[in-house]
User: Which sequence fits this backbone?
């Protein structure tokens, strides 16, 4: 099946079948954008540290995350706000305490490879 878009059909290819396979592998631009957005969230070392802590330990409150990561409470809250808006984490309220956990299964899969012990 020939998948080269019309706007690129006049360009010379070396391995045309592989070009078509690559186009199929890339797929929908919206899907690629969604993954790029996820990677952008993970690209910040502090957000990544928060996610690793949550992934490895389970639900934690803002103040506990601040201690664990060396961040201050407002910075943790701001990072969690971004992660919550992206659907990566959710908060569970118990009285006045909100504990956060990672809920995005794709991000959880990526975090398995980010732990200090490799697992």
Assistant:
């Amino acid at each position: 099946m020939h998948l080269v878009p019309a706007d690129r059909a006049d360009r010379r290819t070396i391995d045309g079948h592989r070009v078509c396979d690559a186009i199929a592998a890339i797929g929908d631009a919206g899907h690629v954008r969604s993954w790029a957005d996820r990677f952008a969230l993970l690209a910040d070392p502090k957000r990544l540290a928060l996610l690793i802590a949550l992934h490895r330990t389970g639900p934690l409150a803002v103040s506990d995350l601040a201690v664990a990561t060396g961040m201050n409470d407002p910075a943790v809250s701001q990072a969690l706000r971004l992660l919550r808006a992206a659907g990566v984490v959710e908060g569970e309220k118990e009285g006045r305490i909100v504990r956060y956990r990672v809920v995005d299964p794709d991000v959880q899969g990526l975090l398995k490879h980010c732990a200090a012990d490799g697992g």
Observations:
- Residues 44-111 form a domain with the Arc Repressor Mutant, subunit A fold (CATH 1.10.10.10).
- The chain has a mean pLDDT of 90.
- The first helix runs from residue 16 to 26.
- The chain has two domains: 1-34, 44-111.
